[in-house]
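re: ur question from the group chat, yeah i did fold both. here u go
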Amino acid sequence: MAKLNFKKGDTVEILAGDDRGTKAEILEVLSKKNKVIVKGVKVVKKTVKPTEENPKGGFINKEMPVDISNVRKVEA
């Protein structure tokens, strides 16, 4: 497996997709899948079923993983 040059907290720029050009912080690195989760990028609305903690259910906004080939580390 190749070594990833990204760590949690690094600032990266998005190279492809709807959020191209966005600079943001890495929240999580998924090394086995070669993906990273970036703050505020690729946000989707997920439905949540009612539970005891959240009796109404509803929607949450969640960041989805981005492939590491679509991000570039930014030196600050």
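okk and heres the other one u asked abt
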Amino acid sequence: MSTSSTLTPTSPFVLLPSSHARVLDQFPGADELEKRLRQKIRGEVRFDPASKALYATDASNYRHIPIGLVIPLDEADVIATVELCRAFNAPLLSRGAGTSLAGQGCNAAVILDFSKYMNKMGPVDPVTRTVRVQPGIVLDRVREAAEDFALTYAPDPATHSRCTLGGMIGNNSCGVHALMGGKTVDNTHSLDLLLYDGTRMTVGATTEDELTAHIAAGGRTGEIYAELKRIRDAYADLVRARFPNIPRRVSGFNLDELLPENGFNVARALVGSEGTCAVILGATLNLVQSPSSAPSSASASQTSSSPQTTSPWSSLTSPSASKAWTVSCSTPSAANRRPSKISRSSPKAVASS
């Protein structure tokens, strides 16, 4: 016996009747969606009861049985998953380590778990103090690589040994030193995004000339920038007057980041939106001087001539070539480097394993 689902005028998604729905209360078309996903996805597709039970909770007291689980191998898997979910009107939920305390990591949706395969990072740039990362990389891996250059990523939540950067961007993580180094929003340079309709965007700070050009170009991207500009122009005075000026304001949307004086920073406006607006495919982070080590002129001169790789993730071996990924930086000599490794199972693993 199955419980019929309903459509509401305010939501295009199929809503399950209860957050404690039984296994028999299936999302309509779940079997066909699973079949189509298995045909397209090179990573893992898990719709079995055990996997859904594991992902029904996070670090909170909430429980929502998901439609199913996809563990994408790469960006192509994410794009294919979003395309198929859109065809089935299935909601999506991005998930990292599942350390959310308010239920953000569980929902009646198809869950995208980035932590197993999409956990790479590019080379640390000690000149610009930036690094590109995939959403599933653990914070400590980034900080360990940055320490080779006397740098660090400032936000440091208590779950730093397991929380992922995608999750930190989702909830605008802070940590005990946020007052000194800033929140995640203060340390995000740009975001690579995938929207539910399939649109790809790279967003960050935007000058007025760039904003005008984006709108003039038209298309879906132009439409989005035009609407964001409309929101900014309509509410700028209220945002300036009413947004609380406190160091650890992490609730709600960061509409203040769209103000001209803040550089119309769409990336920072999305930090803390909990994946409700877009899927994060990658991020460029700002690094700061590490308080645990002093900058070295020798290392600075050594890294200034470091070769740049053509692929942002090419400083790491691919999961198809190795079961361990080494987080490294592109420096001429690695004699004194201490690489960190993450042991991962083969991407050929199946749901039953």
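fwiw on the second one: The chain has a mean pLDDT of 81. The radius of gyration is 21 Å. idk if thats what u expected
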